[in-house]
Predict the structure.
Amino acid sequence: MSVITSDSTTPSTITPLLGLSLAELTAWVQEQGQPAYRGKQLYQWIYQQGARSLADIDVFSKQWRETVKDTPIGRSTIHHRAVSGDGTIKYLLKLQDGQIIEAVGIPTAKRLTVCVSSQVGCAMGCTFCATGQGGFMRHLQPHEIIDQVLTVQEDFQERVSHVVFMGMGEPLANLNNVVKAVNCLNKDIGISQRSIVVSTVGIPGKIHELAQHELQVTLAVSLHAPNQRLRSTLVPTAENYPIDDLLDECRDYVQITGRRLSVEYVLLAGVNDNRSHASELASKLRGFQSHVNLIPYNPIEDADYDRPTPRDVQDFVDVLEQKHIAVSVRYSKGLGASAACGQLRANQRV
């Protein structure tokens, strides 16, 4: 199990234990000369008790803990914590190599949702996104994604019920690690796949590849425009991925998985928020098993966009509803805690 990671975008290191299954942890302890039942103990301490190092696991002998003390579990440390008046908490987490990522805990009366990052930075370059302005550093490994959920769960002292891959990064650019993390969150932490959302701006072929994994997650496509010309100005990488091709791939995903598509649409005042845009969007989605989430823009520094008025938001909703498109408005939680993705990290100048 002490293999070296092969991803050239991450530092070489011993594979952490977080993210391994019960069978894999059992095999690992046996490789260390321990009886098989120690694997179940290790599994429980990592996933149920939140052990951060093998030294924490006092059911193991001091002698053996000393022998394996350099094997990391794979937990991060909280670098900064910002609390909003609505109870939302945004975290900056410091990884083993010193990189900083964001995670957000979003509580409601009935659930606790964690918004997780999948990369350090992002290469998509969306003009209205704080993360996109900061550039791309590297992919996150499965344990670095899972750790975000465990950290929020521990801090809130409440079981996480929902996970959304809507933090820093493009999840489908890191598809293999995201799929591994989803399977672990489901099988080892006990979060239903139907309570997990994977968001994407769209990378040719990757939605189809995700569908082949036969997960029951919800796919959320960040569309942000009803036509190719406008979308290419907002999402630079969309220039090489026609919107009609993207939506065709989404239709295939719905057919293969039987899961409804979620369409994310950030409303930018005077840019993509008028009634004609709504009508054009409705035409693109007609006959599509989908739901539109409208997100009024959260202003960030160095981006020349404004938040739409409540009247304009409602007009957009009205047009979609008149054309029988399922729609809701999602106002971002934690506006007082630098809610826009990547904003807190940028503000802390890490």
Summary: Residues 297 and 307 are 5 Å apart (CA to CA). The chain is about 35% helix and 20% strand. Confidence is low (pLDDT under 50) at residues 1-12.
